[in-house]
Amino acid sequence: MSKKLGFIGNGNMGRAMMGGIINADVFAPENIIVSDIHEEGLKAVKEEYGVNISLNNKDVAKFSDIIILSVKPNLYPLIISGIKDDVKEDVIIVTIAAGRKIEDTEKEFRRKIKVVRVMPNTPALVGEGMSAICPSEAVTREELKEIIDIFESFGKAEVVAENLMDAVTSVSGSSPAYVYIFIEAMADAAVLDGIPRDKAYTMAAQAVLGSAKMVLETGMHPGALKDMVSSPGGTTIEAVATLEEKGFRNAVISAMRACTKKSKEMSK
Ligand SMILES: NC(=O)C1=CN([C@@H]2O[C@H](COP(=O)(O)OP(=O)(O)OC[C@H]3O[C@@H](n4cnc5c(N)ncnc54)[C@H](OP(=O)(O)O)[C@@H]3O)[C@@H](O)[C@H]2O)C=CC1
Ligand SMILES: O=C(O)[C@@H]1CCC=N1
């Protein structure tokens, strides 16, 4: 893409997206700029990816055709007030903050502005991200296509209505954390059973990766796939019965509802 891309915030999510975009070769490093308040982290990404860096958010505002605001939600008003007079007329502002509505961003710019609200996730770094995308009315179809292309360069992307963004945060934005806990717990049990820890992580993570691929690539119902593993009177059904007894399903559902609720509260 010949446009110029800017990141404000060089944290976990900003770096994950930048890594994904550079690995996929969507933007040349010289067409990317990132700002943050921490010089050390900026120097590290310049070293790793060859992108432009700055300690001044206004440099990102002046350079970029598309700006991804990759800072914590509570910092958005401050960041926007600092760049609003320096952004290009036709700039596209991409927001990724949990609980930040498109209208909040529009109001803070105090003018008609193109906004795309996205909820990505950190597996972007390894090209397996999941992003939900919602454009504001001012964004053209071509511009939306460009944004989809960026987010599809490091994983899958779906366009959704804005009222689904809280639920999306739970099912794909935050969910890698629940999956890491599951992998950690499986590995701990394997270590308890005598498997060396490094092998335990590989085995648990590869089982999660393979199972996810089965769901995505066979199109089969997860329940049917579970049944294919569970031999009558065998080992798997013992584990499944214990998970049901301990409320595994319900723990996941309750956790995700808490996540969605928190995202809604943050939107107020
Ligand atoms: N992490 C995730 O998995 C996901 C995060 N998000 C969203 O992404 C956004 C960023 O999250 P995350 O990457 O985890 O956060 P991080 O705190 O890791 O990254 C934000 C970075 O911005 C820096 N920063 C603080 N103030 C400024 C400033 N004035 N100008 C420029 N940079 C500044 C922070 O420094 P310091 O640390 O000192 O504050 C930090 O380095 C959030 O809005 C979050 O809701 C969305 C989906 C997934
Ligand atoms: O925990 C958070 O608030 C952010 C949003 C989704 C993932 N991390």
UniProtKB/TrEMBL annotation:
Enzyme type, top EC level: oxidoreductase
Keywords: Amino-acid biosynthesis, Cytoplasm, NADP, Oxidoreductase, Proline biosynthesis
Catalytic activity: L-proline + NAD(+) = (S)-1-pyrroline-5-carboxylate + NADH + 2 H(+); L-proline + NADP(+) = (S)-1-pyrroline-5-carboxylate + NADPH + 2 H(+)
EC number: 1.5.1.2
PROSITE patterns attached to this UniProt entry: P5CR (PS00521)
GO molecular function, one term: pyrroline-5-carboxylate reductase activity
Protein residues bound to NADP(+): I8, G9, N10, G11, N12, M13
GO cellular component term, pick one: cytoplasm
A GO biological process held by the record: L-proline biosynthetic process
Domain of life per record: Bacteria
Pyrroline-5-carboxylate reductase catalytic N-terminal domain mapped to chain residues: 4-99
Localization in the cell: Cytoplasm
Domain Pyrroline-5-carboxylate reductase dimerisation: 162-266
Pathway linked to the protein: Amino-acid biosynthesis; L-proline biosynthesis; L-proline from L-glutamate 5-semialdehyde: step 1/1
Protein family according to the UniProt entry: Belongs to the pyrroline-5-carboxylate reductase family.
Cited function: Catalyzes the reduction of 1-pyrroline-5-carboxylate (PCA) to L-proline.
Protein name (record): Pyrroline-5-carboxylate reductase
Species annotation: Anaerosalibacter massiliensis
